[in-house]
Design a protein that fits this description.
L,D-transpeptidase catalytic domain-like; two-stranded antiparallel ribbon; 10 strands; alpha+beta; globular; eight-stranded mixed beta sheet
Amino acid sequence: MPKAQNNLIENQLRFHRVASASSKFDGKIKSIFQQHQLSFPPNNLYLRIFKEEQIVEIWAGDNVQYQHIKDYLFTAFSGTLGPKEKEGDKQIPEGFYKIELFNPKSNFHLSFKINYPNHADSIRNQSVQNLGGDIYIHGSNKSIGCIPLGDENIAELYWICLNAYSIKQQIPVHIFPCKMEKDKMEKLYQQQPQFKSFWNSLEPMYRFFQSHKMLGEVTGCDSLGNYQLAIPWD
């Protein structure tokens, strides 16, 4: 095990909840990955989240293509469909994020933080003084803009993500309003037309992954905070 990876894991294992997660789930997780003929930790890990369906999908791969590992269901939900815009709106963000911090002493058992607000959020809501922050995926069954999965599920997912992060500190977390199929999106555009251009900027990533089980690249955002993507073969 490389030194940097070893240090991260060792430091986290000093905390009881992380040590307990390792003891309970490490063997099970390795078996699941072995069934998929994947290494653990995998070279690439990807979390894909759908708000309407209230589900977190876990995908992993040792090359550019991903395999579906398992799903976790939300244990609570706050806000509505649509991106987070400001502190206190109770919205779960939507967009393209990554994991940036692991909290072994969370008030909600275990948690990891995504990098909301990102640059696109800041541009899209530049007139807002306080965009909010501290958006976590965590345990328990309470949500005020975060994504709770229950204590058992977060312990398992935390151990998966922690190990993957220890070898490659880039775990994308993509949060979509729903599974962006044509019929669903037409309904959403009618209900919330103010988000149409924003949702249109998310849809190519969803569509490309559905077709190829590969991720496109987020290259930036436009002056309205809509994502710009490099999608091969789209």
